[in-house]
Amino acid sequence: MQLFPGFEQEYLKRHEQIWPELKALLKEAGISDYSIFLDKESLTLFGVMQVTDEEAQNGLKDHPIMKRWWAYMKDIMASNPDNSPVTAPLELVFHLE
Length: 97
What we know:
Shape: globular
Number of strands: 2
Number of helices: 4
Largest sheet: 2 strands, antiparallel
Oligomer: single chain
Helix content: 25-40%
CATH topology of the domain at 8-73: Alpha-Beta Plaits
Radius of gyration: 14 Å
Strand order of the largest sheet: 1-2
CATH class of the domain at 8-73: Alpha Beta
Strand content: 15-25%
């Protein structure tokens, strides 16, 4: 994901005040251990999460709470026409167990 310049503190603030209903929705969809990292130089956001139910997680895009969150965040980050954040898949090149 990509943050717009100058919105680092606002992004942090909004996530510190994440809506309880969004937090509950993510957990209901089988998402846990969710972290978002920011590369301050490029303003690239990198999310890592554990997902126990891929199908439930894929259904989040249609949920009204998720759509409301995306609309709330679109002014500070690159977004698609449906307000979802612009994302890019990453290729795993190394994993240490």
